[in-house]
Design the sequence.
């Protein structure tokens, strides 16, 4: 039963009070998350960041999603003023694209299969979910900014690509259930 533990179980639980960034990063990596690419056209070229802190369903009315970005990001200040930002929830085939967009190389979008909306949002083809958003609000949160995005359009395919999952600092894929 939830909330009830035996004495043996209680004694086996140990809370680590080391709250250094490395220790916290390791602890937080125990929570699996999807991976989102947030991209837009800036100066005629695609720009983007990758976030594993992305949350859908923050609000349905108005439609809001959110993510957190480090204050040291050099790309977010460039993206934040975009008219529209495309959010692609990366699919299981996007591991290399994720690493490429997150890299510090000069052309992080070379060879990627992209679609740009009329409003300038950049979306990766074959994503598990696409959203076209604008910045609604930013709030300071320690060494990050929490960013609320207003959703202006959404597209998901019922039998589309399975999402890429980030867990224990590595990429994973969902396993399809086996048929008996």
Sequence:
């Amino acid at each position: 039963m939830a909330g009830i533990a035996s004495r043996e179980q209680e004694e086996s639980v140990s809370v680590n009070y080391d709250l250094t960034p490395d220790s916290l990063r390791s602890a937080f990596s125990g929570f699996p998350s999807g991976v989102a690419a947030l991209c837009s056209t800036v100066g005629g070229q695609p720009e983007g960041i990758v976030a594993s802190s992305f949350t859908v369903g923050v609000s349905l009315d108005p439609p809001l999603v959110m993510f957190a970005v480090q204050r040291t990001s050099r790309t977010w200040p460039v993206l934040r003023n975009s008219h529209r930002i495309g959010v692609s929830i990366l699919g299981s085939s996007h591991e290399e694209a994720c690493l490429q967009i997150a890299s510090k190389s000069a052309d992080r979008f070379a060879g990627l299969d992209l679609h740009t909306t009329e409003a300038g949002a950049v979306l990766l083809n074959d994503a598990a979910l696409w959203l076209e958003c604008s910045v609604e609000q930013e709030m300071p949160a320690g060494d990050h900014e929490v960013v609320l995005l207003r959703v202006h359009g959404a597209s998901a395919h019922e039998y589309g690509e399975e999402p890429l999952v980030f867990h224990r600092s590595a990429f994973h894929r969902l396993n399809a259930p086996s048929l008996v």
Q: What stands out?
A: The mean pLDDT is 84. The radius of gyration is 18 Å. Residues 2 and 9 are 13 Å apart (CA to CA). The helical segments are 7-12, 21-28, 76-79, 95-102.
